[in-house]
Amino acid sequence: MQKIIKDHISKLKSSATLAINEECRLIQKKGKKVFKFGFGQSPFPIPKAVVDELKKNANKNQYLPMQGLEELKKTVALYLHKNFNYKFKSTNILIGPGTKELMLLLQICFDGEIILPTPSWVSYAPQAVIGKNKVHWIQTSSKNNWFPTAEEIENKLKSIPNKNILLYINSPNNPSGAVCKNYEEISKVVKKYNLIVLSDEIYSELTFQKGLKSISNFCPDNTIVSTGLSKWCGAGGWRLGFFAIPEKLNVLKNSLKILASESFSSVSAPIQFAAISAYSDNHSDYKKKVTNILSNIGNYVYDNLRSNKLSISKPEGGFYVMVELLNSNFSSSSDMCKDLLKKTGVALLPGSDFGFDKKKLIARLSYTDFNGKIFLSNTTGSKKLDDGIIKKYAPNVVEGIERIRQWSNSF
Predict the structure, then answer these.
(1) The last residue of a domain, from among 226, 246, 280
(2) How many whole angstroms separate alpha carbon 377 and alpha carbon 396?
(3) How many domains does the chain have?
(4) Taking Cα atoms as reference points, which of 294, 296, 279 lies closest to residue 372?
(5) The CATH number of the domain where 365 resides is what?
(6) Which segments within 216-307 are labelled E, that is strand?
(7) DSSP assignment, residue 384?
(8) Structural domain contains residue 1
(9) Rounded-to-integer distance, Cα 151 and Cα 8, Å
(10) Residue 247: which residues within 8 A CB-CB, separation 6 or more?
(11) Both 249 and 318 in a single domain?
């Protein structure tokens, strides 16, 4: 058969996060128990008021403006100003079917090169391949909380002749669960070299400590803020996200609108109307409970896995940690994860999917394998949750962590 797939597309694989989810389903169909620590998805129900708004607007069947429903854009801009001190107007907001789609369109229209810190979310680099943009990696370490220093970014820039650069910053970070604390120094490099920053803030509402900052607070004219409903609102399947794009980058926004018109046209009307409730109503109690549960489970995972066999950094937001196996003879992180899944039923994603060298025996663990609806209805406020509560309402997390611990002790 003649070649019908473009070379740069034929080299791509299915998204690692979606692939591990499918693999877990196949194992479960065989009647085997799987601890689903590979796929990152909020386990919590969508707030009832938001669901009610979706039901109320289910009869909305018209195409909406390609940039998004005007009332929703105004609500989002006000929400960003009130909660994060961002100074965006409704004209700066672009509503999309999830931020993943918007990021892909950004890669398609952007003419330049990409800087990605290691570790980075699994889809950043493949999307750059689709957009035919060269990727430059900056290796980070736990010493710097898994984020690049300003010096590391500047040194990388010196090796790139093309100064049309898009830098990705994701905080709280997927896969490390770390929060960036050196925005101010990074912003100086951003301004000096006139970089464009894609600030992926999809987990920003799930930060465990108060006072979260964004790089947009330091270099707003250079920063595209990317976030949506999937994580804090438990609405991943609804597929609603947005970009907040500063005036200085209007040329990008206008190109994204054109690509939107030729791809997804506009986001589902009922979901856009429902999203107004998500960004205008007070969901602080819901967020407080959700964040408290995730923080306590994250601490449980950290306390029960760290050992002389496993290296782990304490999570600061979201629902991930990275775990590194010390002193073993696996040839790759992929082989390590396959062995773990085969022997224990615990599914993790190998570090090589996030930009690490395949020989580095590190993996991402998502601690969301529990019934969020039941857990949420049995907790109040930000009270510290003891191990007994976690064992009662997140038994799969507890058992899966114990299986990893016992497996690691065999090396």
Answers:
(1) 280
(2) 18
(3) 2
(4) 294
(5) 3.90.1150.10
(6) 223-228, 241-244
(7) P
(8) no
(9) 32
(10) 92, 221
(11) no
Structural contact between residues 289 and 205, judged by C-beta atoms closer than 8 angstroms: no
Q: Are residues 18 and 94 in the same domain?
A: no
- Residues composing the chain: 411
One domain for residues 224 and 288: no
- Which candidate, 383, 80, 118, 25, places its Cα nearest to that of 212? 80
Residues 266 and 319 in one domain: no
Are 75 and 135 found together in one domain?
yes
DSSP character at residue 328:
-
Residue 196 and residue 309 share a domain: no
Tens place of pLDDT for every residue, the chain, 411 residues?
677 888 888 887 776 556 666 777 777 777 788 899 988 899 999 999 999 999 999 999 999 999 999 999 999 999 999 989 999 999 999 999 999 999 999 999 999 999 999 999 999 999 999 999 999 999 999 999 999 999 999 999 999 987 799 999 999 999 999 999 999 999 999 999 999 999 999 999 999 998 778 999 999 999 999 999 999 999 999 999 999 999 999 999 999 999 999 999 999 999 999 999 999 999 999 999 999 999 999 999 999 999 999 999 999 999 999 999 998 889 999 999 999 998 999 999 999 999 999 999 999 999 999 999 999 999 877 778 999 999 999 999 999 999 999 999 998
Give me 272's structure tokens: 């856009």
Give the C-alpha separation, 214 to 403, whole Å: 37
For residues 294 and 299, what is the distance between their CA atoms, to the nearest angstrom? 8
Residue type, 57: N
**Residue in the structure block whose two tokens are 């100086």:** 188
For residue 303, being part of any structural domain is answered with yes
Boundary (domain end) residue, out of 280, 304, 336: 280
294: Cα within 13 Å, side-chain hemisphere: 31
Q: Domain range for residue 266?
A: 48-280
Flag whether 17 is in a domain: yes
> In this structure, are 290 and 152 located in the same domain?
no
Q: What is the pLDDT of residue 18?
A: 63
CB-based contacts of 155, cutoff 8 Å, min separation 6: none
pTM above 0.85, yes or no: yes
The pLDDT assigned to 17 comes to 59
> Exposed e or buried b for every residue in 164-188, given b needs 16+ CB within 10 A?
ebbbbbbbbbbbbbbbbeebeebbe
Cα 192 from Cα 201, distance rounded (Å):
23
CATH at residue 269 = 3.40.640.10
Would 2 be classed as within a structural domain?
Answer: no
Q: Which structure tokens are listed for 229? A: 């409903």
